[in-house]
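DM from R.C. (forwarded with permission)

"hey, sorry to bug you on a friday — could you get me a structure for this? deadline for the figure draft is monday and I only need the backbone to look sensible"
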Amino acid sequence: MVVGTKSLVTSPPLILAVETSSRVGSVALALGEKMLAESGFSAPLRHSAEVFPAIRGLLDSAGRRPSQIEHVYVSCGPGSFSGLRIGATIAKIMSLANATRIVAVDTLDVVAANVVDIGGTGSQPICDRQTHAAGCQRVAAVLDAKRGSFFIAVYERQAMTEDASPETQDPSCKSGVVSPGSGVWRKVLADSLMTAAEFLVRFAHEQEPVWLLGDGLVYYRDNFRADGVRFFDQACWSAQARNVHALGWRLALKGEFAEPLALTPNYVRRPDITMKSR
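My reply, with the result:
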C-alpha cells in the first residue's frame, strides 16, 4: 500500500543515498526527486574511511544538519560483504537516532541504471548515448562474488504498445527498465550467483549479443569474452549513489520502506565464517 505519496511530493524530504556495495563508493544528497549533490570516494575500497567525511561534506555544502535527513536510501546488495554492512549500519543508526525512513535498493539494478532507465525513474543514464548507439537488446550487470563466481542480473528490452505503460504491460515486473521511445526493459534474470562459463552458456548468443557492465569485469573481463558478448566502456561500470537515489525515490513513492530492525543486506549467499581453533 502506498503511504504518504502525496505528502512526499508536496513536502519533499531531505534524502541521503549511500552506495558502498561496489569497489568505489559514493554518497548523494537530494530533496525529493531533485538531486542536490553527489560525492565519490577518492579510490577503491575506501568506504569505511571516507563515507562519513563525504556525508558531512555534502551536508555542509547544502547548509543542512544530519538530523534533517528524513530518508536514507542504501544499496543493499548483492556486493561486497563489508561494504554492504557499512551501508546497512549507517541506515540503521540514522533510523534509531532520528526515525529516518529507509529504502533498500538492489545493487545490480543500481549498476544497470548506468545504461538504462530502471523503472521509468526519468533519470538520464550516464551511458545512454552508448546504449542507443549500440542498439542493444540485452544488458547484464556483473559483480565479483569471489572464488570464481559472480553476482549477475540480466535485463532485456521488450516492445511496448503505444497505449501501454510499463506497469500495465506487466504488473509483476517490479524492476522494469524504461528508455523513452525504445520499449520496456524487463529484468529477465533475477540476482543470481554463477560462474562466467555458466553465464556464457545461457546468454552468449551471437545472433542476439548481450552487453556487460559492472565491477566484476575489472579483473575478469577476459573470462566473459565470447561471440555474442559486448562490453560497455569501463566508465559505465561502477554503481553510483545518484542511481540509488533515483531508484529509492520511486520505491518511496510506492511506500516500500524497510523495517530498520529487519534490514539485512542481500548477500545472495551467506558470508563465510571461519572458526579459529584455540
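R.C.: lifesaver. The two ends are 52 Å apart (CA to CA).
me: no worries. Confidence is low (pLDDT under 50) at residues 161-181.
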